[in-house]
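Human: If only I could read C-alpha cells as easily as an amino acid sequence. Take your time, and here it is.
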Amino acid sequence: MTRAGRSLAAGAVVLLAALGLVPLVNWIPSDLSAPWYAPVAQSWVLGGLLVLGIGLVAAILARRTRFGAPAGLAERLLGPFDPAGRLGLALVALGALALYLAIAWLVFDGRPLHIDEIVQLISARSYAAGRLSDPSDPDPAFRSLLHLVDHGGRTFGHFPPGGPAWLAPFELLHAPWLAGPFAGALSVLAFGFVLRRIEPGRSVRAAAFLLFAFAPFGAFLAGSHMNHTPTLMWGLAAVALALGTGSLRDVPRWALVGLALGLATATRPSDGIAWTAAVGLWAVFRRELDLRRGIALSIGLAIPAAGILVVNAATTGAPLTFAYELLWGSGVGLGFHSTPWGPPHTPLRGLELLNLYALRLNVYLFETPIPAMLPALLALGFSRKRERGDGLLLGSSALLLLVYFAYWHDGFYLGPRFVHGLLPALALWTARLPGVLRSRSGAGWGMAERVAVFGGLVALVMAVYGLPERTQQYATGLRSLRWDVDRAATASGVEDAVVLVQESWGAQLLARLWALGVPKGESERIYRNVDACRLEEVVTGLERAGPGVDPLPPLVAAMADSARLEPTTLSPDRTERMLPGARYGSRCIGRLLEDQGGVTLLAPHLLSRREDLVFARNLHDRNVSLVARYPGRAVYLLYQPLDAAVPRFRPLDRDSLLAAGRGSESAVPPAP
C-alpha cells in the first residue's frame, strides 16, 4: 500500500473509531440522541479492564506452559480440518441455520413483529397468489397501513420487489418465517467461499467464519422477516463470484455476478448501490473486466433491473417511479433535502446518524463487554498489507456508510440494521488482529498478541454469558404482535364475521387523513403538529364536505398552535398531541375513553389466513357501510384492555349497529 493510501486508511479508521466511541449525537442540538450512552460507556471501561486483566493473566500462564503460541495452539486444535473446506462450510452453515431457525421460532414466534416485515409479507402473499397488487378497499381508511400504497384502485407495499419475492416461495409453504434463516445460512456459505479466496491463514479463516456465522446482530436479523439478510446474501454471492469462486467459465461467472448485484439492488436499492459500486470499482482498478466480461456483467444486472421496471409499471403506472417515491414524495431518496417528516436532512444530521449507527454497532454486533468494532479497527489501523479481495469488502463497507450518511431515516430494529452489511469486513478484521500485531512486532508471538487472543476469548465468553438478557428482551417484547388471532378466533367461536379492530384514536386519525387524500408524509407532519381533538374536528368537517374539497388549507391552518403542543397525558397513545388548556367536547372525550378502555393494532391481523373473517379498523359511524357489504355476517369488536395480556373479542349487535346509521356519535360503544 502506498504512503498516501496508508494515510487515507488511517484517517478512515480514526474517524470510525471516534464515531463508535464518542457520543457526538448527544452534543449536537437536534431530535437525535443516545441517552443510553453513559451506562454503556461505563460498562465498556469495566469490561475492558476485566478483558485485559484476565487476558494478561492467561497470556502469562500460557507462555509458561506447554501450550505455546496461540497460533500453534489453534493449528493443533484444528488438526487436518479446514473450516473453509467443503465439510467445514457445510457444518458451520448447518449450525448457523439451526441457530437462525431457533431464533425465528423460539424468540420471534415465527411472526413478523415490525411494520416493515408485515407489509413485505402482505406483498409476498400477493406474489405467491400470482398478483403484484390487490384491489383497494372501497373505503381505504378501514384497512390502510403506513407502508401500503393505494393507487389507481390497487393496493401494494412500498418496498422494492426483491424482499417480498424472496419471502413468496416460503409463503406458499405457509412458513414465511423460514425465509430469513435460509438467507442467513446461504450468506454464511457465501462468506466461507469469500474467505477461501482472500484469507491465507487457516486459523484466521476459522475465527472469521465463526464470528460471522454466530454474531448476535446478524443472527437475530436472520431470524426475522426483514430484507437485510437476503440483501447481504446476494451481495456476498456477488463478491464470491467476482473473486473467482467455483469452476464456472469466465463470462458466465460475470453474468452471475451482475445477476446477484441486481437482486441485491432489487431487495434494498441503497445497499445494492454500495455492493455494485464496490464490485465495479474493484474490477476496474484490478483490470478484471474486459469487454466480454463487462457485457456479461451488464446483462446480469439488466435482468433484475427489467423486473423492477415491470413491477413499477404494473403498480405505480410508470417504470421509473418506485412505490416508496409515489407514497412519500421525492424527499424520501438519498441526498440533503427536506424529508417526508421531521427536520431536513443535512450533512450534520448525516454525521449524527452515522454516529448513532456506530455507537449501536459497538453494542449489538457481538454483545461483548468492550466496543465490538475496536479489534477490527485496531487491525485495520496497524495492518501493513491488504489481500487480493480486501478491497471488495472494505470498499462495500465504506460505500455503505457513505450511502447512509446521505439517507435521512434512522434505521433501528434488532440493532442498527442499516449497517448490517458491515458484518463481513468486521468479522474478518476482528479475527486478523492477533496476526496483525505479530507482523508489526516481527519477533514471533509476543505478549501483546497473546493478550489479544486470550482477551478476545474472554470477551466472547462474557458475551455468551450476557446474551440471555438480550434474547429475553426480544422474546418478551411486542406481545400483541405475536398473538395468534386465527387460533384465538376459533377458541372464541368467532366465525363468518366482520371484526372491527379497536386501534388508538391517533391511528384512526392518520387513516382518515390518508383516506382524504393527504399524502402520508404530510399526514405525519400534520398529526404531530395538531391537537388531537382539533384534528378530529377538522377531519370530520372535511369528511362531511365530501370529495372535491382540498383538505390541506384547513389542516395546515390547524397547525397554528404547534409550538405549544405536548404529548397527551389523557391517552395511552403518547403520539397523540394535546394543547394545554384546550376544552374537549363529548366526541373527543369518547375517543379518549376508547383509548383508555384498550386498543390493539390492525396490521398483524391483516395477515390472518381465515377467509371467513374480515378484519378492519373501527371507524365508528362509518362502520355501517362496511358491515352492509357483508350481509349475514356477525360483527365483533377486537380490543385489548390495558391490564390484559392479549386482545379480546366482544360481540356486537349487527342490527343495532346498522340502525345507528351514519352521523351518530359512535355506532360502537366503548369497551368496558
Notes: DSSP finds 29 helices and nine strands in the chain.
